[in-house]
Amino acid sequence: MYKYEGNDSSASPHPFDHDFEAQLRDDEDTLRRIVLRMTAALVGSCRQCKMISTDIEDDAPIYCGKSNDLCYFRKVSVDCCLACGEYKNGPRATGD
Length: 96
Prior knowledge:
The protein is α+β, with helices and mostly antiparallel strands. The protein is 36% helix and 10% strand. The chain has helices spanning 20-43, 78-84, 91-94; strands at 49-52, 62-64, 74-76. The protein has a three-stranded antiparallel beta sheet with strand order 1-2-3. The longest helix has 24 residues, at 20-43. The protein is elongated, with a radius of gyration of 22 Å.
């Protein structure tokens, strides 16, 4: 450890080391928000997409109506939604 003037020898030489975990969590949350917004923009035209949750902690934030039962919506993950590709058939994609 380096000893800085006015600090004890146990102090970290990097002033932000104690906040490193918090910064990682903030960065991860920011990235999740960005991915969720990009997904919402991309699949917003999907005829099957009924709602997208704004909760970044939700592993399945998309309510999809693509099922045999029209009374209930399935919650799907972003990966599942994009893999389905139904959003490509939305009104914006076809020019409707």
